[in-house]
Design a protein that fits this description.
The structure is a homodimer. By secondary structure, chain A is an alpha/beta fold. Chain A contains 8 helices and 7 strands, in the order αααββαβαβαβαβαβ. In chain A, the strands form 2 sheets. In chain A, strands 4-3-5-6-7 form a 5-stranded mixed beta sheet. The first copy, chain A, has a two-stranded antiparallel ribbon with strand order 1-2. In chain A, helix 5 packs across helix 8. Chain A is elongated, with a radius of gyration of 20 Å. Chains A and B meet through helix 1, helix 2, helix 3, strand 2 and helix 5 of A and helix 1, helix 2, helix 3, strand 2 and helix 5 of B.
Chain lengths: 197, 197
């Protein structure tokens, strides 16, 4: 059709979440029409991101610095840690601007059926942070799914001996909903209505 | 949130046709999770495409060779040219495998209201191809829109002196389509284009 370069571009674009074969072709065409203005800048942004972005060793966030921008910010409440399932959830909370503490990204939820146990989660660094002291409260901001609830209960018990208050996000998270698709107001309400877990 | 590199990646992904801000974030996250396996290969494919792909000087197709793969294929009917609005239309016809001749990409349609005149289309190379001789038929495969119809009428008259047969794609009920979901214009065209059964 247009050589192997175009075929490969369409193939890889089609693997992006949210893009099927048809929209991948449309995206490729839009980019190929403006190689200098659109295709190269996106290629460079990707290369730059691939070279610089890493996982924060402290909290599990993705950032071009390690410790990440959130962990490095002295103005954030160092005694308050919000535990989320994934980086997308962290992004959603940051967009909403409703959490002024730090985060901890679990990288998943417990799923006995899916064979995902505590050893598969980013758990040891969280325990180390609590043992280091200075953490007043841990907010469990997990999705209202079966796995989210399982993980929340398990974490509540596991973290209780640390002495920190363990709370969880409350009203506002719809049943069966994932955190990263919620609107800002719902996220704010959920954080405000947190209860002892 | 995660540094300027991530912000820029999301911003540029969000400009792809078919990706809004939310799906751009999802795509960025999917890529950032596997920088070596997914982000870098896509960046390289884009760079490669930007470096090699150009517009075929003969027909207006996008290809890493010039003349393009279609124009260079000696097995294709050199006397039959299919005129399309954009490269996406050429791709669609090639996927269908229904045209064994060459193409000519106009790069748009006439739009008096939009201020797009004949001088804005890839027209001179088409006239040059007809003047060079050997073209038996020109098929106008333009969309069934006001602009498509305008362009088709104008081109029919403009190309008539060349001596080649000027035809246009048929209009009617799409394959697999039910009658009761079609718009009035399509139904009218289908009735007009009726043939002995």
């Amino acid at each position: 059709m247009g050589g192997p370069e175009i075929e490969r571009l369409i193939e890889l674009l089609g693997k992006l979440p949210g893009l099927g074969p048809r929209s991948a072709r449309r995206a490729a065409l839009g980019l190929l029409r403006q190689p200098q203005a659109r295709l190269l800048p996106l290629a460079n942004a990707m290369e730059q991101a691939a070279r610089t972005v890493r996982t924060c060793a402290r909290c599990g966030n993705l950032d071009s610095r390690d410790p990440c921008t959130v962990c490095s910010d002295p103005n954030r409440d160092q005694g308050l840690i919000c535990v989320v399932e994934g980086v997308g959830d962290l992004w959603a909370l940051e967009r909403a601007g409703v959490h002024r503490g730090l985060y901890h990204v679990l990288g998943g939820t417990l799923s006995p059926l899916g064979g995902i146990g505590p050893e598969d989660l980013n758990l040891s660094p969280l325990l180390a942070r609590l043992e280091a002291g200075g953490v007043r409260e841990v907010i469990l901001a997990l999705g209202a799914t079966v796995e989210g609830a399982t993980t929340q209960h398990w974490l509540s018990e596991r973290l209780a001996p640390s002495g920190a208050t363990i709370s969880r996000v409350g009203q506002g998270v719809p049943m069966g909903g994932a955190l990263d698709v919620l609107d800002d107001g719902t996220l704010a309400a959920a954080l405000m209505a947190r209860r002892a877990s």
